[in-house]
Amino acid sequence: MTRANEHAVAGLYAITPDEADTARLVHLVDAAMAGGARFVQYRNKTASPGLRVEQARALMRSCRHASVPLIVNDHPDIAAEVDADGIHLGQDDGDVAAARARFPKALLGVSCYNDIARALEAKRLGADYVAFGRFFPSVTKPGTIRATLALVAQAKREVGLPIVAIGGITLENAPSLLAGGVDALAVISALFGSADVRDTASRFAALFLRESKNEQR
């Protein structure tokens, strides 16, 4: 696995949709990376264990070719089997300290919803970044707790790790998150549900360039 701190967690963070067709999934992810996705998280809540391994392995090949880190959601065993670059843990996906010990060189992310205390604990246990959200109404996570820009500001002050925002993010609402201090945007539906994934990824990537120019003024 790649050493975690070789990759600054920033930019478009593409999270895969629940796609049963591995070839189509790889095609979609390749388009996202060609458009500027900086990270790919493999997440499939509906696939069988065998299909998850198949898809993770196929995505690992594509991501290595594109020099984009692949992060596996929920499944440390799959991350180990395909030699993924990282692992992402939700609230019920395992122990952060155990993951850090098992994957000392991997990028380790933790979902913190709207919980600063969880983010601080994740940092203490070795997380490389924390994810907050949902920030907007979400098709993928319709019932999850809302996070706010005030929470982002607090996390910037108190946690000091890169912040990934997730939940209902679109090209229209993303600028408010970037202006509020978010480092990376985790996007599923607005990216992979678009008519042109590469173009949409490129437009998301352009938002980061625009925000960077605004900060330099």
What can you see in these coordinates?
44% of the residues are buried. The chain has a single domain (4-216), classed as Aldolase class I (TIM Barrel). 44% of the residues lie in helices and 17% in strands. The protein is of the alpha/beta class and 217 residues long. The chain has an 8-stranded parallel barrel, surrounded by 7 helices. The longest helix is centred in the C-terminal third of the chain and has 20 residues, at 197-216. It has helices spanning 22-35, 49-66, 76-82, 96-102, 116-124, 149-158, 174-179, 189-192, 197-216, and strands spanning 11-15, 39-42, 70-73, 86-89, 107-113, 129-132, 163-166, 184-187. α1 (22-35) packs parallel to α2, α1 (22-35) runs parallel beside α9 (197-216) and α2 (49-66) packs across α3. β6 (129-132), α6 and β7 form a beta-alpha-beta unit.
> What's the quaternary structure here?
single chain
Per CATH, the superfamily is Aldolase class I
- Tell me the fraction of residues in β-strands, as a range: 15-25%
Helix content: 40-55%
Order of helices and strands: EHEHEHEHEHEHEHEHH
Key descriptive features of the protein:
217 residues; TIM Barrel; 8-stranded parallel β-barrel; 9 helices; 17% strand; globular
